[in-house]
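Worked example 2:
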Amino acid sequence: MTLVTEALPVPTRGKASALLMRARRELGRIADARRAAGAQAYMKSVMPYHGVSTPLLRESCTEIFAGLELPSRTIWCDQVLSLWRGAKFREERYVAIALTGHKLAKAFQTPAAMPLYEEIIVTGAWWDYVDDVASHRVGPILRDYPAAMKRKMLAWSKSGNMWKRRTSILSQLGFKQNTDLDLLYACIEPSMDSKEFFLRKAIGWALRQYAWTDPAEVKRYARRNRGRLSGLSYREALKNV
C-alpha cells in the first residue's frame, strides 16, 4: 500500500471556525486562572492555558462535539486543523487532538491521515501533544496497516526532526505481545547515541513498556547495548525488570 501524502486542506471559515469558538467559550466558562498559571509553568508553554483539568476537558469535549457531523475525511481534517491552527490556548489544541480520535473519525484512521498527524507532531513539538498522537493515533494505524506504516516509521526514525523520531520509537507502546521487535529496535538504533533528553527518555520508556511482556528480552537487549545506551535509557528500560 502506498502512503497518501497529498497536501492538507486549508481550514475554511464557517463551521470550522464556529467549532473553535464553541470550544473557546466552553473552556473559558470553566477556566481556572490559578491552575492555568501552574500548568503553563509546568509545561514551559509559550501558549497560555485556560486552566481546565483533564477530567473536565474530557467532559467539555462531549459538549463541544455535540451535534458534530464528519461525513468525510476532508471535513474531519478541516475541523481538526481549524482547532489546531487557530488555537490561542493549549487546551484548544487538546480538543483538536481529541477530535482526531472521535468515534465518527474511526473510518479515517488510515495512512491517509498521516499528513495531519505529522503536522500536529512537527508544529506541536512537545511531549504532551506528541506522545498522545504517537501512541493513540499513529500506533493504531501502524497496527492496522503494517506494511505501509513500517516504512513510514523507519523513515521517521532517521528524521532530522526529533519529535518524528520520538514518535517512531513510541508508536508501539500499547502493542504488548504484538510488538514488532525488529521494528522497535530499528527505530531505536538511529537515536541510541543521541544526547537529546526526549529521545533518551523515549527509548527507555518503550523498552520498559515491552519489559512487562518479555523482561528477559529487554534485559538481554539493554545489557548487549550497555555501552551505547544512555544511563537514562538503560535505567528506564530495566526499572521494572
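The chain has 13 helices and no strands. Confidence is low (pLDDT under 50) at residues 1-16.
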